[in-house]
Amino acid sequence: MGLTKVWQGLWVGPARAISSPLLSQHSITTLVWATPEVHLPPLHEGVTVVHVLVQDNPSQQLGPHLRTVSQAFRECQVRGEGMAVVCRAGKSRSAALALAVLVALPEAHLTLREAYFTIKAARPFIRPNPGFFAQLIQYEEEVLGTASVTMEESPYSEGKELLPAVYVEELQQALCGGTFTTFVSLC
Description:
Elements: E1 4-7, E2 10-14, H1 20-25, E3 28-33, E4 48-51, H2 63-79, E5 82-87, H3 93-104, H4 112-122, H5 130-144, E6 151-153, E7 162-164, H6 165-176
Parallel strand pairs: 2-5, 3-4, 3-5
Antiparallel strand pairs: 1-2, 6-7
């Protein structure tokens, strides 16, 4: 899957999808490059690149970049231009940064939970790693004064793995919501 429009003027995707013609086609003038392991391709003049050089690892600090990326999107909106947020696969870092953008966007009026399901509806396989999600929860508390998502122990792992509640809910729905036929009750 290439670049996906997840909100008016906001796209998420993998770094390999980026090309100057694609950016021009969508009036994208700001590119958030969240993938230090992939080289930035040549881009046409007029594209601003915001570098978020973190690995997709739960211990990495994405938090310091959330306000910067959110502000970059607001500036794009004022100019009537678009922004693309990309990482290696378009699943974790880019999705986490796009979630921060929507939480901070006053006219969106979205909680982190609502932003997650909004982006997931457009790009179904997003999955920010648990460390990034924990940082997003903290960011939501800073921006909105409350958290709409908590971190919970996964009932499906033997360790003390903490996952965002929305992931646990999705897993429970998949296992217990009629998607699978089982002979042993899982719920």
